[in-house]
Design a protein that fits this description.
By secondary structure, the protein is α+β, with helices and mostly antiparallel strands. It is 31% helix and 20% strand. The chain contains 20 helices and 27 strands. The strands form nine sheets. Strands 23-22-10-14-12-26-27 form a seven-stranded antiparallel sheet. α9 packs parallel to α11 and α11 crosses α12. The longest helix is centred in the middle third of the chain and has 23 residues. It is globular and about 85 Å long. It starts with a strand and ends with a helix.
Length: 620
């Protein structure tokens, strides 16, 4: 009749640690179940399994060409070569390279060709294979994919257990008031960003309809049923949702107050509040928590990106490159490489847009769409022509010089970046760029940006700068730091996070190099290697009205004082540059920096990206 579930702090390591401790203490494992959130779905990234996508074969001029990347600076990044088969002998899996495999033994199955889906597996088959059972693929011929926005049903955009919460509040409850904050975390200054996207995408207008209610109920009746006890009909709050549909025209009866996006607020302060405006919809406030807490993501990306901007600006100033900041060049010093490293297109859009609050360089096109559609910014970011390993290695090792020459010929003006470590980054810098193509680079109307993509940090950056300096020479900044000529620069995109970025800039400064010699590209670390606990983001109820009486609500666990929540109605006030969250309804409404941005289905404030950027620059 009783069991325990542990959901706080659970990842694969803590899970095993707990089970081991239970066993040692004489407890059976069946006493416990686990719940896992961020560690299950967010605290992982492309490098967790070192996932990569590389060209291995090309057909050029009618000839078959086996293609390989083989950097001397990192043998672990050597790619596979030629056409591949994945073959299984007993329990041993082998990738056979260079077209030497047996197609009859190939475990790779053609799933898509020329716009047609050729395999449509059921989830049951996938689960069976995950249990190492043999399951044949389901072959089809489908030319139509998923139609409609199947995930945009507000009735279902919540955690399953919240579906049951309308039955759990005290009798007579008519209002639930909750707030969102960064309870602490890695960065003391939080740059709030992303709420407007979520409001426009999911909440504005008539968002509740009978088809959506019906669809949600059909899922819930199975999802929350039990093989013995069946389904309790009162679990799904159909009456509540139908009331919103009929009484409010499908518009959500809630009010959201928030600090203006881009505002820099010290952590441990309220960032937005939400409450119901219809007494019958007290259950709705925290029903929407699961969706709106996702604002942690663009806010955390934006916050961390801003901290990296601060670091870059500091080193530009300390190495005599103030003019770069004055001309806006610092806004291109951290380029977003993150699209391939995130978990979804939506993550790329809102995370990439958060980065663009602070910088202008990006290769994440989805972020541009987000900025335009949700924040009215026509051109939020920019990029340049650049190579990747496939466009270089398809020329072959012996053709690398020609590949590099082609880059200069195809893009005779402006900035162009070229990955140069496919085989030997040092030969590329000294011989190809520094000797064979030096005249073209120096006479070209623009700048070549050399990109190493492997090697030990910060050494590889210093080595590349030294090699280029031997051939192109340097000048001195006002602080005496070396600066390559304007025709050539370096971008480091491998292994860049906020720690390695500062480590590299510090090493460059110590070695006499000006910060303007280098730009950074960051992918997974910029958009994926962060989570809700990075800034300890949380959403908690702090006030309720029960039987007509206001009740200040607080969470105060003796096992973790850091999780004590704020109490009562809140205001966010700023006096003399000092931000304070005033609790228990004691604040002055006239001093509240939070503004009503959403009420009863309507967006009341629509911030432009330019204004958000301007706010984010405060304190830099």
């Amino acid at each position: 009749c009783i069991r325990v579930i542990q959901g706080d702090g659970i990842d694969i390591k803590s899970l095993e640690m707990i089970l081991n401790a239970m066993k040692a203490a004489g407890w059976a494992a069946d006493n416990l179940a686990f719940g896992s959130g961020g560690a299950l779905l967010q605290k992982l990234h492309r490098d967790t399994q070192k996932c990569a996508f590389k060209c291995s074969y090309a057909r050029i001029g009618g000839q078959n060409v086996d293609v390989v990347k083989d950097p001397i600076t990192d043998p672990g990044k050597k790619s596979k070569k030629g056409r591949l088969t994945l073959e299984k002998n007993g329990s041993t899996w082998t990738t056979v390279v260079e077209g030497r495999g047996n197609p009859g033994n190939d475990q790779l199955v053609e799933v898509f060709r020329d716009g047609v889906l050729l395999v449509d597996d059921s989830f049951a088959k996938i689960r069976a294979r995950a249990d190492e059972k043999e399951e044949p693929v389901t072959k089809v011929q489908k030319t139509v994919g998923i139609t409609g926005d199947v995930f945009n049903n507000i009735v279902m955009l919540t955690d399953s257990y919240k579906v049951t919460h309308h039955l759990q509040y005290p009798p007579g409850t008519t209002k639930i008031y909750s707030y969102f904050e960064s309870r602490g975390g890695a960065y003391e200054e939080v740059c709030f960003f992303g709420l407007q996207y979520f409001l426009k995408r999911y909440l504005v207008g008539s968002v509740v309809s009978k088809p959506k209610i019906d669809a949600a109920e059909a899922y819930i009746k199975i999802h929350l049923s039990h093989p013995v006890f069946g389904f309790d009909e009162k679990i799904f709050n159909r009456k509540g949702w139908e009331s919103i549909m009929t009484k409010h025209g499908g518009k959500l009866p809630i009010c959201i107050k928030a600090v203006p996006e881009g505002t820099i607020v010290p952590y441990k302060n309220v960032l937005f509040t939400m409450e119901n405006t219809d007494d019958d919809c007290y259950w709705l406030t925290n029903y929407l928590e699961s969706l709106l807490v996702q604002i942690w993501y663009p806010t955390t990306v934006c916050t961390q990106s801003r901290e990296q901007k601060r670091i870059i600006m500091r080193y530009l100033k300390s190495t005599g490159c103030e003019s770069v900041i004055e001309g806006g060049g610092h806004l291109f010093k951290l380029h977003d490489f993150g699209f391939r490293g995130v978990s979804s297109v939506e993550s790329a859009a809102i995370g990439g847009c958060g980065h663009l609050v602070n910088f202008l360089g990006t290769d994440t096109i989805a972020a541009l769409v987000c900025a335009r559609e949700c924040y009215g910014e026509s051109y939020a970011g920019f990029s340049i022509p650049a190579s990747e390993h496939s466009t270089m290695t398809s020329w072959g090792r012996e053709g690398e010089l020609d590949a590099m020459r082609n880059m200069l010929e195809q893009y005779p003006k402006g900035l162009v970046a070229c990955v140069s470590d496919s085989y030997d980054i040092f030969k590329a810098c000294s011989q190809y760029w520094g000797t064979d193509l030096r005249a073209m680079i120096e006479q070209r109307d623009g700048c070549l940006v050399v990109r190493p993509d492997s090697g030990e940090l910060p050494k590889i950056v210093l080595d590349v700068l030294d090699k280029l300096a031997e051939k192109f020479g340097t000048s001195k900044t006002s602080t005496g730091h070396k600066l390559l000529p304007p025709c050539i620069r370096v971008i480091q995109g491998d292994g860049i996070d906020i720690k390695s970025l500062e480590m590299i800039l510090n090493a460059m400064k110590a070695a006499g190099w000006a910060a303007d010699n280098l730009a950074f590209g960051s992918g997974g670390a910029l958009l994926q290697k962060l989570h809700r606990d990075t800034q300890k983001c949380a959403f908690k109820c702090s006030y309720a009205v029960v039987n007509g009486q206001g009740v200040d609500v607080v969470k105060d666990p003796i096992t973790d004082p850091g999780k004590k929540s704020k109490k009562g109605r809140l205001t966010l006030e700023c006096e003399g540059g000092v931000w304070t969250t005033v609790t228990e309804g004691k604040g002055a409404a006239s001093k509240d920096k939070m503004q009503t941005v959403f009420r009863n289905g309507e967006l009341l404030i629509e911030d432009k990206f330019a204004a958000i950027r301007e706010r984010s620059n405060v304190g830099l």
